[in-house]
Amino acid sequence: MENSGISGAGGSSILSAVADRAIVKKERLCDVAGRDLYRVNNKHDDKYNPFPPSRIVQWVEELVDQEFCYSLTSKNCEHFVNELRYGVSRSDPVRDAVTAATISGVGLIALSTGVMFSSSKINDLKGMSCQQ
Fold first, then answer.
1. Which residue has the higher pLDDT, 94 or 62?
2. Is residue 72 scored above 50 in pLDDT?
3. Could you tell me the pTM of the whole model?
4. Between 9 and which of 1, 13, 22, 82 could a Cys-Cys bridge form, CB atoms 3.0 to 4.6 Å apart?
5. Domain segments of the chain as ranges
6. Among candidates 97, 100, 66, which has minimal Cα distance to 80?
7. How large is the average pLDDT for residues 115-124?
8. What is the DSSP string of the chain?
9. Domain LRAT, which positions (predicted)?
C-alpha cells in the first residue's frame, strides 16, 4: 500500500506515517526494493493457516488502485498483508509497543504506589514518636 497525499512517500518512508489514506499499488518487488535486501517473511504460518497464494493474489488484484484508511497503529501495511494472508489483522511492532507501554505503565504505577506507601509509612512512624 502506498500512502496518498504525500508526493514520493512510499511504504518504507517515514513520511508515510503522517497520511491517513492509502492506495493499494501493484509494483514489481525489484522496483520497490531497489538495491535493498529483502526476504519473504511468513512468520505467522505456525499460528494461522495461510490462504492459498492464488486466492491472495485474486483478492489483491481486486484491491489495486482502491483507497483505504491508514493508521500507523491499527491499519498499516503489516495489518493489511496479514489480513490478506491469514484473515487476521495484526502488526507485531504495534503489539510490541502496546505491550511495552503497558508494562512501563504498570511499573510506574507500582513504583509510585511504593513511594506513596513509603512516604505514608514514614509519616505514620513520625506520628508514633515519644510525644505522649
1. 62
2. yes
3. 0.56
4. 13
5. 2-90, 91-132
6. 66
7. 52
8. -EESSSTT--TTSGGGGG-SEEE-----HHHHHTTS------TTTTTSPPPPHHHHHHHHHHHTT-EEE-BTTTBSHHHHHHHHHHS----HHHHHHHHHHHHHHHHHHHHHHHHHHHHHHHHHHHHTSS--
9. 1-93
Band of pLDDT at residue 123, cut at 50, 70 and 90:
low
Question: At how many degrees (to 10) do helices 53-63 and 77-86 cross?
Answer: 130
Task: State the cell numbers at 1.
Answer: 500500500
Mean per-residue pLDDT, 113-128: 52
Q: Cell digits for 59?
A: 483478492
Q: Is the pLDDT of residue 6 over 60?
A: no
Residues 19, 70 contacting (CB under 8 angstroms): yes
Q: How far apart are CA 112 and CA 126, in angstroms?
A: 21
Amino acid identity, position 40: V
The answer, yes or no, to whether residue 68 has pLDDT greater than 50, is yes
Compute the radius of gyration of the chain from its Cα atoms: 24
CATH topology of domain 2-90: endopeptidase fold (from Nostoc punctiforme) (3.90.1720)
Q: What are phi and psi of 106, to 5 degrees?
A: -65, -40
